[in-house]
Amino acid sequence: VQALRIRNLVKTYANGVTALRGIDLDVEAGDFFALLGPNGAGKSTTIGIISSLVNKTSGTVEIFGHDLERQAYAAKRMLGLVPQEFNFNQFEPVMEIVVNQGGFYGIAAAEARERAEAVLQQLGLWDKRHEQARDLSGGMKRRLMIARALIHEPRLLILDEPTAGVDIELRRSMWTFLSELNAAGTTIILTTHYLEEAESLCRNIAIIDRGQLVENTDMKSLLSRL
Ligand code: ADP
Ligand code: ADP
User: Fold this and answer.
1) Atom 7 of ligand 1, nearest CA residue
2) Per the CB 3.0–4.6 Å rule, which of 40, 60, 61, 187 could disulfide with 3?
3) Which residue's alpha carbon is at the smallest distance from atom 19 of ligand 2?
4) Are 182 and 27 spatial neighbours (Cβ–Cβ below 8 Å)?
């Protein structure tokens, strides 16, 4: 079964702006997939819909075979989202932010603490576990967002512009982390403005522009045509 299957996705916002004009998208399980496009193309809208933050106008979305509307809980359970903005409580300790997210998925506290320790270790945040989120550096906050998204061991991880405004050193270490996560079996989709980021990480790519899919191919054949 595919990690993500989108058919004829349309989104018109309340102000009349049509952000998506009928998108079809398939992402295979195990893929590392880039959704590329200029500002305003519809990337955030697409992942907003996949993560149930934005209501679609029409079309269908399935995550590992679970329809986002008819099997919403099962679909959401498969998905981890790393939005662009830091939307955790700045006054909460790092450990609590990650553990409490487990509660949303019905993960027992003891197990959530175990998993939180594992992801915080992996992301180099274990020493910071008692600090309030506001005391972390920007790069650490980014890693905290990733740790929190992984607490329920999602099969599909979606990251919106994960390295926007991130310095080159952290960018490299995030790329390594994501590559390893993908190698261990997690399907990853990221949005980016940067072809170089997609190029160094992703096997397959879709390009959207003004709400339409203009390219959907593997990275090698795209690069051979540029
Ligand atoms: P991208 O992430 O590729 O930059 P977006 O999905 O954010 O693109 O935006 C696609 C289009 O939808 C743009 O024209 C944008 O201005 C518009 N848009 C996005 N969010 C909203 C919103 N909440 N209300 C109205 N229009 C929106
Ligand atoms: P860009 O991706 O071009 O940097 P932003 O992500 O800042 O643009 O979003 C542009 C507009 O889309 C803003 O109005 C923002 O509120 C809206 N938007 C972006 N992502 C989402 C989302 N996941 N849910 C709802 N609105 C969103």
Assistant:
1) 44
2) 187
3) 44
4) no
